[in-house]
Amino acid sequence: MSVKSQKIAEEAYEQSNGRTNHHSLHEPLWLIILETITAAALVVFLVICIVHTIKRCKSKSKFAIHRMRTQTTKDLESISIDDGFLKNALVYSREELEQACEDFSNIIGSSANSKVYKGTIKDGSEIAVISLSVSASHWPSYLELGFQKEVENLAKLKHENISKLIGYCEENEPFSRMFVFEYASNGTLYEHLHYGDAGLLSWLRRMNIAIGVARGLRYLHTEVQPPFAISELNSNAVYLTEDFSPKLVDFERWNTIVSRSDNASGYLSNGSLFNGFLEPSETWDVDVKGNTYAFGVLLLELISGRSPNYKDRCSIVDWAKDFLQDPNKMRMLVDPEMKNVKIENLSVLCSVISLCTDPEPSKRPSMQILCAMLEDGVDASVDTVLRESSLAWTELVLPI
After folding, report:
1. Which of 192, 188, 196, 182 is nearest to 213 (CA)?
2. CA separation, residue 64 to residues 9, 71, 121, 207 (Å)
3. E strand residue ranges, the chain
4. Full-model pTM
5. Which CATH architecture has domain 83-183?
6. SS3 for 128?
7. Are 218 and 365 in contact (CB under 8 A)?
8. C-alpha 51: how far from its chain's center?
9. Domain boundaries, the chain
10. CA 92/CA 296 separation, integer angstroms
11. Is 327 exposed, middle or buried (0-12, 13-18, 19+ CB in 10 A)?
């Protein structure tokens, strides 16, 4: 290449490079504005994200602190039972109950979480006192709320076949939490069937007990909202009055509540418990169906006099299944020493027992249906009692 051509090329390169630099130094105004707005928006977005993250962290920290305080604070003086719900429940002092229960020496039941005492108050009425086995240091506020809720729920129950809550005790010095129930003085159905004079439980009385228990369960399952299920329904939960009328009592209920509360997942930010502890939940339906099955077992125990766990730990339901569906074998279910057994009543009982003990819970009828079957199919009227009683007296008077 000649010197002249080289010089021309260099001049062209320098002119081109100069135009490029000049162009980069003088960008269009709209582009500069767009870049500035974009940068500002990005900064604002980042600031908002940072602020939101900080607030969430503070909120979680506050919730965790509040939850911890709720679990450990023992400020029970600030929590009181709403008297509006307890117009018919009396407040007893610890001293009153201690005197009534002979210095708490008359123990008729116990568990890991409670003890049951029998007592007599000043007016002569017999009572059963459930004393919770707790101390103030192991009584978090959620259990105090649970105790109050339970008093409220129990005070609402009003039925002739349900043991009535007549009062409660709530003192902090010394720490005391107690439920006070009316006491049916004739002992439990279990005691009469297995340790007492079973002869006192005539067929007619057993039919009245069956219907009375069914009515009590119908009330708890269908007339109380949410449905109220007996935690341990068996012959030990059936107390008898002097005229052998049954009264259902649930001395094990508090143990179930404590167990559920221990499994509860925590607290809401306002200090109230999640639905699993204080509010209705799907578990109630399971409990009700379990009560239905237990009622069928109870009927088998009532008519046979056998323990629910038959010899060699065989279930009474397994033992009875071959007799329930065969009319020719139904009589095998009845205690051999039982007299005046009415086969038509037994047939109705077998039908009810079969429905109650269906392996599929969803197929078990409501207590409303089962109770109606017993009321319509079993003759346990007062007239029948009088006729049977008159016949017995006639047989005693007539010469042999």
Report:
1. 188
2. 77, 11, 47, 56
3. 90-91, 107-110, 114-120, 126-132, 165-172, 175-182, 238-240, 246-248, 309-310, 314-315
4. 0.72
5. 2-Layer Sandwich (3.30)
6. strand
7. no
8. 44
9. 83-183, 185-273+280-384
10. 38
11. exposed
- At 94, the amino acid letter reads R
Place of tokens 């201690």: 98
Secondary-structure class of domain 185-273+280-384 per CATH: mainly alpha
Cα(20)–Cα(194) distance, rounded to whole angstroms? 110
Q: What percent of the chain has pLDDT over 90?
A: 44
For residue 339, what are the contacts with CB-CB under 8 A and spacing of at least 6?
202, 203
Tell me the two tokens of residue 279.
């509010």
| Residues 88/156, Cβ–Cβ less than 8 Å | no
β-pairing verdict for 165-172 and 90-91: parallel
Q: So what's the pLDDT on residue 11?
A: 54
Closest CA to 238 of 200, 294, 288: 294
Question: How confident is the model over 41-66, as a mean pLDDT?
Answer: 62
Average pLDDT over residues 377-398: 56
